[in-house]
Amino acid sequence: GAGVSQSPSNKVTEKGKDVELRCDPISGHTALYWYRQSLGQGLEFLIYFQGNSAPDKSGLPSDRFSAERTGGSVSTLTIQRTQQEDSAVYLCASSLGKHSDEQFFGPGTRLTVL
Amino acid sequence: QQQVKQSPQSLIVQKGGIPIINCAYENTAFDYFPWYQQFPGKGPALLIAIRPDVSEKKEGRFTISFNKSAKQFSLHIMDSQPGDSATYFCAAKNSGNTPLVFGKGTRLSVIA
């Protein structure tokens, strides 16, 4: 079956602009995670969704970052007023449900803020 | 505070060798320990995972060894091949829907 998909694969933006990154999880997976991968910082957790609710937003680095999930499926990560330090690869992962530990990652969106 | 420490940062082995990547964790509540393989431009792919009730797990050429008392676990790749050249990440998490905590990664190069 289809894996996790993300779009766009690459995004170049100017400092101060807003960006939206999209994640389509594996069909039937109720849990969805966003991570950020940057040089020197490794993979960092941003936010987790169970269904459409986000019980854990503890990893969001600032109030410029927000995310939503609709219909228990697609999720959008929005970064407002982008800064150069936001440049990174943003990864989405999905998991089967409440008692499942396995997380499956998408290919990521490479964000470059000029 | 780095909850999962991974070493080495990079590793070069000859084809057929057995690279070993080590990880140590601090949180005793962690009970799921996966390894991910990542090729350039791709997302991490789940390779193998272990829980603390077993000391070793093998899947094909990949083996995880787990030492609960030392809070350490390691990945061994038997008969390594150039196609195994990638970055490997260890991770850990609590049970259920909780985020993964990753090590910093190990860049493995297998030379022919």
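qc> Chain B touches chain A through 24 residues (CB under 8 Å).
qc> done
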